[in-house]
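Risk register update: the risk that structure generation would not scale has been downgraded. Supporting records follow, first protein first.
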Amino acid sequence: MPGYRFALIALMLLGATAARADDQLDFLRAEAARSDKIGFERTTRAEALKDGKTMVSVRIDRFDPKAQPSRQWTLVSVDGRKPTAREIADHKKLVSSFPVPGFYRLRAILAGEPTQATDERGRTVYRWDRLPPGSLPTPGPDISGRMAAEAVVEKVGGRPMFSRVRIYAPRPFSILSVAKMKAFDLMNIYQADGSGPPVLVAQTSLTDVSAPFGQGGRSKSEISFRPL
């Protein structure tokens, strides 16, 4: 029995250590919780590789949270020209299917408990092995639980902030036993915005999907955000 008591006390102590408060993470999560959608103009340069051909497109759209709900999104241009009616309709359908990008999204994405490390520059890096269900909406079934996240913390003006958050698939996985996600990597870059929460200023993404009937392919994009 003494050995059992010692083991039990040791487990209790280990549990207390693992569950200790992280004031910095609490602050960062509070920053995301008090953040909200902000207006921006977004420029997206996308490259898609399909059937050995690379297709490039550049789109500019705008989000204004102060406008009426049906008018908050505007497709400004496609490859330097005015968008067609079909392109406007497709854009409206696309943006209505996903959350508005922004720093506020981190309160849902980084909700679980992470591990913590320090990188070569002395910055804190939090890592999540998997994301909460429904936190990363994508077409088709929910793949959030297949995703991991890595968040780098910088000190700006003496305050910690998430400067970049990478969301990625640690390994390939199948989707409905039909398609296969061979690669998924999304980098979000944030900048300080005075005394308020940081703002999303850029994203880069890479996806590689294998699917029947020519529905798969490899694509990457570079996206910049300009606050309105």
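Supporting record for the second protein:
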Amino acid sequence: MIAIIDYDAGNIKSVEKALIHLGQEATVTRDAETIQNADGVILPGVGAFGDAMGKLRAYGLVDVIRRYVDSGRPFLGICLGLQLLFEGSEESPGVEGLRILRGQILRIPQEKGLKVPHIGWNNLRYPRRGRLFEEIGGEDAQNGSYVYFVHSYYLQAAEEEIVTATAEYGVTIHASVEKGNVFACQFHPEKSSETGMGILRNFCRVCGLED
């Protein structure tokens, strides 16, 4: 079973539907015991960094998430869920993130011809192809795949060796990371057609679940 953490953020139901489409049992929950007993956990969401951290604290989920990650079982952050795993965000100065991974969330700079927020399909490149991208985007480790983004802020990871996918949008966006049992995507795999379904399928396989 995969637990999807419910902290009143947007876009949670679409992740649930995608997992069900893959034949997986998915539970949207904020119950600590249910989360701790899951084969894998997903932290999705869209919204503001500071509001989201406030909700995670209000629901007692910060320690629940850290305990689950410490257990060594697979954990996936999606969009806002990726950002919350890091130290802080320019969107909410002074608000501390989960600090599970090192790095900062920065605002996408305004540039002529580029709209912020960054909404739509963009091409990935794989500096270090991680487990989420096995059999995704062809044989060439640099070959890209198109995925769907909706965001105004982007990750600058402190440890470049954890970056498994990047995208270009005025700056180089660290679009996906993997460190041990922790995975995260800035883009929305649940909205990224067959490529996204393949990424979620790979996460399920990391969890020991077959479709």
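The mean pLDDT is 94. On this basis the risk owner (M.S.) recommends closing the item.
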